[in-house]
Design the sequence.
């Protein structure tokens, strides 16, 4: 048996799965493999049929997840030359809530010929948004009944979460609801396929299925009030026992060992969520340091010693990110998407021409031009609500605003104003946490944006007045999963005692630190005060013009 | 002597003069000539020198005006084949306030070698904006003293007007101020050159030099409080007598007759202003019908029976447009400029490509795409303040706002929202007039925009709820001047008794009428209510964020 030990992490994303093989001693990513799902995101027609989907649907095929395991693990083993004997653990993370109905043995209903034509038999992807009526119903009932758990989720359950999706199945296809012995997170389902053991991970249970360590799931009375058939959904269709993060779900089955080339019995960790598993991969295992996962949207995560009810947060879950702490999650629904919209819809041909000539993409050109501006120079201010507001207002009906334009306003000034707006949005989240008693002293950035846009990072530092560090890996999810695999293996097999120990060894930051520039901070403090005034005026009911415009739009379109 | 009689009108614009020869019986424009000023707009270096101008300066060379007369009149005579015997009158209109210092005989100071190097010796064009400190001083003093005339100008004298420009000369080059026997409108100066008679026309006196039929110019005490040397500016440097519009200033001098080919003694009308002279050319000689001259900005003019103080109007002058009525003027400072800014700065290359492929310009393409949208469909709302707000807020420090954007917002939706914003701006002007007792029952559109953009005209009809007619000529200024030439000639020479009679014969509308579409009007009423709420919130002091951003911008740039 050689000295060096390894773990494998698999990050199941929206379009593909990404697998890394990582050295335990230093977190070095020795090999990587990516597997695009053959059926991808299913939002038009069910595979192998002519069944068309309605708007806002987004499904997946669970076969693709298994294929990802069987394809990528042999690839990383081969690429690295590492012996399966030295791979001591395996962890996975998943998008969430991504859920499916199965039989008692784990067979997905969509894999059975009699149900394959039923859209509700398939995996509902996190961004399946067709359960909004069910989410509304849940929220209204919870408010009426004064359900205590509602406050843990910023006062609103999202249509993306578990019970709205389950209720949609019951409403629209009761046959499938009845046929389902299990309604399960895809994260837990793939662990079940790997180990033969059904578990329910604490992270999705807490953040997506309204579970709490102290009070459990919502009561049967609540579910019965939603729908009589739903009273015993937890007992009947879900694994009631919730497993902590880093625990060992089981060992690799003989069949999976044969298919992947790993040893039978290789420890597999309880499942996790992509964003949450990135926190220890960003070196964060203690309170006070907020991880921002910045992509098309931004997810903010921070740990605390006590449960605090923070206005507009997405959720707080005890042990939900790192055991021993309350894990707080907040979010901005439009960040990278914001800039992508601008580049596609509002940048003149002359800029495209210049970018082409100079071998840049438009983002790079705009970043360069915007970086030449001083804070406050454009005279512009924006509200970052092009896709509604998640935290702290939790209102999808808010829309974007740009103020201060003149005949001299240039595209790069607007681009910068949009970046600044997302930075103000992050600052208001940070300040709301701090006002609620959750400290945020430092920021750690992960995701695609921090690597691509240095101007953005500096603006975030200047606006928030906090140092920003950057995660050392571009695949924080898969690394975090591998770390959990090492914890599931435990010290006896050469792994780690807990996620703190794993993070100390395996997680790293880049050398770069973005520090607030005091002169910039002074200007941004003034601009932020203006942002807050507009945020509150348009976001807290003084002038609901954005909602009235949306309603008018819907009326006008309905008359077509 | 043949039957048909003609008049000539010359419209002195910013870059060129335009001359038309018009048939009196029906207003037919028989011949047209355009003369671009050789020295154009002088805003960098004085002609024939190395003297550089400061920012915001805009001068002209008066020699160019005389050249325009001598070049274009022979051209229209030749082109038309009309005998000079049948040209019974001549009228001119000019940009205003465009003014210059001269000797007692009318010689411009800039034409004298001893003053040619003095910037202040030259013609100050209407858009010379360097007298803002002087305008501020005048406004402050007038407020302190409670000068009754201030309310006739919406509470603010513009830096473009006569006395700020005169005071700037006195402040910055007292030698020129002393040397000037006359400070005169270029409009009156060119009539002086044509006739040898110095007059001061009522239109510029009233709208640009704070003159009123009943109370005259501001008092010597007021001027003395501005500057001791200025106490007797009216008596010392201006023609005190003000001549009514349509009156005969004099007859063509022998020298000018020889140079132009017209008869010596041909009646020349008192001067007029380009926008104001367009009103009768738009068939409007009575109250209730508002003329909108729509180009880069929009000028709104309407007649009334009584003097009313309308908030935020540019001015009200008795007999200032049509003798016998009070002439009201209001304005929007950013209309065509608004759309031009958008097209230059915010339309993606793919649209440019499509326009090129289809042989359209970008405005045409955007108009076509925007026309496919229904009112309210975009969910967008804008404030048309990209260049501040003239009427009704009279505030240059306001800036543009766009609200309601989402990730699905398209360029044509923003384009349409900008058009709609200018229409709301016109509606608020109309409603302010009506609330002040000045009726506006119908709109007549002149200028470049109405011909180019039918969608815009329909939106204006839908938003204002009023029929819009369109002026029959694209050179309303020159036609209006020719009409005034016919009035100056009078019935004895085959001309007209007054401008009403001239308008009845010579002015025409196009066949097209834009009528409000009731379904559109209903939606726009809702959107307009939202516009007014935002207009008042940002424009009347509830949230002065636009001004604070402008101030911050100036501070930031000053630190560079």
Sequence:
């Amino acid at each position: 048996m050689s000295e060096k030990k390894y773990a494998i992490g698999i990050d199941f994303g929206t379009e593909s799965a990404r697998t890394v093989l990582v050295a335990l001693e230093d977190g070095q990513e020795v090999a990587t493999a990516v597997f695009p799902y053959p059926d991808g995101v299913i939002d038009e027609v069910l595979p192998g049929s002519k069944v068309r989907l309605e708007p806002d649907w987004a499904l997946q095929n669970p076969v693709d997840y298994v294929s990802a395991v069987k394809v990528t693990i042999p690839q990383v083993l081969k690429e690295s030359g590492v012996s399966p004997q030295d791979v001591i653990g395996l962890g996975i993370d998943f998008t969430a809530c991504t859920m499916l109905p199965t039989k008692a043995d784990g067979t997905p209903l969509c894999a059975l010929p009699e149900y394959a034509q039923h859209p509700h038999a398939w995996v509902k992807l996190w961004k399946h948004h067709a359960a909004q009526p069910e989410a509304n119903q849940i929220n209204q009932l919870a408010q009426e009944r004064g359900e205590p758990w509602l406050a843990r989720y910023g006062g609103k359950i999202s249509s993306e979460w578990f019970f709205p999706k389950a209720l949609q199945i019951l409403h629209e296809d009761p046959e499938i609801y009845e046929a389902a012995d299990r309604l399960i997170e895809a994260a837990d389902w793939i662990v079940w396929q790997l180990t033969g053991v059904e578990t329910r991970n604490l992270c999705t249970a807490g953040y997506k299925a309204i579970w709490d360590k102290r009070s459990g799931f919502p009561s049967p009375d609540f579910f019965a009030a939603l729908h009589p058939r739903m009273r015993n959904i937890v007992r009947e269709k879900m694994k009631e026992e919730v497993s902590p993060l880093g625990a060992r779900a089981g060992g690799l089955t003989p069949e999976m060992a044969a298919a992947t080339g790993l040893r039978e019995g290789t420890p597999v960790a309880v499942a996790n969520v992509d964003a949450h598993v990135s926190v220890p991969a960003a070196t964060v295992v203690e309170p006070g340091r907020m991880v921002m996962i910045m992509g098309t949207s931004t997810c903010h995560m921070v740990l605390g010693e006590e449960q605090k009810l923070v206005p507009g947060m997405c959720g707080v879950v005890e042990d939900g990110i790192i055991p021993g702490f309350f894990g707080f999650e907040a979010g901005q629904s439009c960040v990278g998407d914001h800039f992508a919209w601008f580049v596609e819809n509002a940048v003149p041909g002359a800029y495209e021409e210049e970018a082409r000539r100079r071998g840049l993409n438009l983002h790079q050109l705009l970043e360069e031009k915007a970086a030449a501006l001083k804070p406050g120079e454009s005279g512009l201010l924006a509200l970052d609500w092009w896709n509604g507001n998640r935290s702290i207002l939790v209102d999808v009906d808010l829309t974007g605003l740009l103020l201060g334009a003149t005949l001299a306003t240039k595209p790069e000034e607007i681009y910068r104003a949009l970046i600044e707006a997302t930075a103000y949005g992050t600052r208001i989240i940070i300040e709301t946490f701090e006002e609620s008693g959750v400290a945020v002293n430092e920021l750690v950035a992960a995701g695609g944006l921090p690597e691509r846009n240095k101007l953005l990072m500096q603006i975030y530092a200047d606006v928030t007045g906090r140092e920003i560090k950057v995660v050392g890996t571009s695949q924080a999810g898969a690394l975090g999963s591998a770390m959990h695999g090492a914890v599931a293996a435990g010290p006896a097999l050469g792994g780690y005692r807990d996620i703190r120990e794993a993070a100390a060894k395996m997680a790293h930051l880049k050398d770069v630190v973005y520090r607030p520039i005091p002169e910039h901070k002074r200007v941004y403090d003034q601009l932020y005060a203006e942002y807050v005034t507009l945020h509150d005026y348009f976001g807290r009911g003084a002038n609901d013009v954005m909602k009235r415009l949306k309603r008018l739009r819907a009326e006008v379109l309905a008359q077509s």
